[in-house]
Request: fold
Amino acid sequence: MPKLIIIITNLFLILLGIISVVIPAKNLNIKLVRMYCVFNALVGIITTILFIFKIPNLIFLFLIIWVEVIILYFFFKDILNLKKKHDLWVLLIVFLVFGSVFYTYESFKILPSYSRFIECIFIFLLSLIYYHNELENPKSGFIHKNPVFWFVTGFFLYYGGTMFLLLFAKYFTGDKIRFAEIWTVYNLLNILEYIVLIYGFICYRRTLKA
Reply:
């Protein structure tokens, strides 16, 4: 069952990557989501191949976390209209936090549960700020037709759902059955995110035709 879930997850990820490339991206936030999807698709393929041949791939999990934080920061910066002068400070603080956590608690040989937890909190809070702004000052009369809403919702569900999951997984690495169950839930949340992001691109395509 876990292997089947991994295959399905990667199929959805590849489909998402293809859709994100095929649909023309005119706005900066769409281009950043495309970058997020393509990067994850490429890394997902690489890590799966390494997993099949039983080659260590944990370094790619750290790479995913660090790159995702940068891409999604600029995505939320664009849709939340954050001031450009804060970029350097925000990224500097983020890297200092991740660097400190990595140096103190982690290495490339263990699951990056603490780094992932920090990333999840960061994206989850930015998603909440977006929802708050939409409630206070809606930019669209039909939010369900707004692709940005679906992109944020995909991130909100995935990062909110996996926030504590890898922290728990860290304590079950020696229990193969329990760890496989946790990883299955993790992959299901991945699939949910990919489906929502795909729908976001479908909504964006409709806006191009309108």
User: Anything to note?
Assistant: The chain has a mean pLDDT of 88. DSSP finds eight helices and no strands in the chain. The longest helix spans residues 176-209. Helices lie at 2-22, 28-52, 58-80, 87-105, 113-136, 147-161, 165-169, 176-209.
